[in-house]
Amino acid sequence: MARRKDRPGPLEARSAAILQAIIEEYVATAQPVGSVALVEKYALSISPATVRNVMAELETAARMKLNAVMVVNNNHSGGVIENARFEQAVDFSKVAQAMGCVGFRVEKPADLPGALTRARNAVVHERRQALLNVITPY
């Protein structure tokens, strides 16, 4: 499941990793991304059916326009999936904007509170999903 059933909260690590792989693959190819291709290319230790289930949950959240602020700890490692080769140059805030969300790139810790406030305002006042691409060294 994309979210734990016992409480609302952020995506589980597996769901976040699959979403990141989908984004990376789509940005690299500009083609639809299939579950079998993801499992093979990124050497995922889960079945294509599991990937499809997670993809469906993520798509449902976007389609239902669930109010959400997503924060990406972008340390350029992609370390959730072993043996994954993630493109380091991807700006997830621009990917979010291309998908109709509000996206912010945060490079300095001092800029995070303001970005969180702007993201919250976008969710509350504009009824849009927001993503903060927080660049960190670790």
Number of helices: 5
Task: Tell me the count of domains.
Answer: 1
Distance linking N and C termini:
27 Å
Order of helices and strands: HHHEHEHE
- Find the structural class using helix and strand composition: alpha/beta
Radius of gyration using CA atoms only: 15 Å
Query: How large is the share of residues in beta strands?
Result: 5-15%
Write the layout of secondary structure elements.
Layout: H1 13-29, H2 35-41, H3 48-63, E1 69-74, H4 92-98, E2 102-106, H5 112-126, E3 130-135
Parallel strand pairs: 1-3, 2-3
Helix pairs in contact: 2-3
Please give a handful of descriptors for the protein shown.
138 residues, alpha/beta, 5 helices, 45% helix
How does this model look, in words?
With 138 residues, this protein is of the alpha/beta class. The chain has one domain (13-135). It has 5 helices and 3 strands; from the N terminus they run αααβαβαβ. It has a 3-stranded parallel sheet with strand order 1-3-2, sandwiched between helices. Helix 2 (35-41) packs across helix 3.
Summarize the structure.
The chain has 138 residues and is an alpha/beta fold. Helix content is 45%, strand content 12%. It has one domain (13-135).
